[in-house]
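Structure tokens please, single chain.
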Amino acid sequence: MTLTSKGLPRRRRGFVLITAAVAAVAILGMLGLCLDLARLYVGKNELQGFVDAASIAAANRLDGTSAGITAAISEATANVNRWGFGQDAPAAVQVEFSLLPGGAYLANPIPALGYRFTRVRAQGTVPIYFVPIFTSVGTTYNVDAVSVAGQQLLPNPGDGAFPFSPDAHVPNPLPADPTGNFGYTKGRLYTLRWDPVGKGSKTGILNKAGNKVVGCEGDMNEVGFIPGADNAGQRGYIDLQEGGGGGAAFIRQAILGSADIDPINVGDTIDNANGNKQTEIDAILERIASDTNPTTATYYTAPALGVGLEPPGRTYYAVDPPGVPPPSPPRGNGRRIVSAPVNNPTTDVVMGFAQFFLPLDPCLIIGGAGNPRPCCAEYIGSASRLPASGGATHGGGSPGAYRITLYQ
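Here you go.
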């Protein structure tokens, strides 16, 4: 037997070389398989993030009308989120609607009344590089994802309610508003905190107590509108603590979302709080600063042309689903979107709940602006769904506040 210089038989040396070569191929194959599987895993997760965001956005547009269905489809299919490392739109997006989260889903329900749940399916193609070398699988693999979101009724809204109550904008005495928008125009600024007119000033509008007050452009420019404050000391703050006693410190905590707030329902009478409470303005700015997008100036690019109509466009502020990090430019985490009970200014009774977007300088204090300084917020839509009656078709559930929830 011939020995090599290292003392191994020549036959054994050849066997080791063959074994090492086969093992290297196997190891490379396993690494390639892991890489392909990782690409599929990442692609699946990214596509799931897309459908989650799309279903949430679509569910927020449902209002019990065919126009709401159309807007929901547009919101889902034109969603600004992407997959494929944030570069690609899904190849196919399917949007369907249902009365129940586990019910039958339809692409275009007629009539649309009561449809509060959206299911979004999306499909995409992930390229694979190593698996096709060893199998007959093609060079791409299709992945899909599905998400269900809907409007969940909050029977006793409490935590999360903003401690202000804007006055509804329909003629006094207040009738039902068939659009569900309380007479507000989406994209306009309405008053959260009223500011009194300085001594001797002749500007402002009269509230129902006969005092002149200054508010935001959506209120000040509305012909015939009468604010509901009962006396000169009320500014728009409301007491959300049972038995009263919710002073400045409590309201500040409520603005920041850290207060234990008692339930408030449609039909309840609001408890107005008196005083300027200047320190609470700082709390509003602090809440804006805690948003992951504290820079976008407006939610809508321009106000709608009238009550019940949709604004012409959206800005780039969007709410990311839980667990999804904001891309660049940053998307918001929802801290600048607040829900507030809207009251009948004649009776102080809660009519429903509305969502507002906090602007960059809501109380006109940045840059040293002087009085009057009301606090304003942009109306972006109703948080309530009113039952159909008298020809109204806005929503299909019980009166109250709704929140968008992911069900799947």
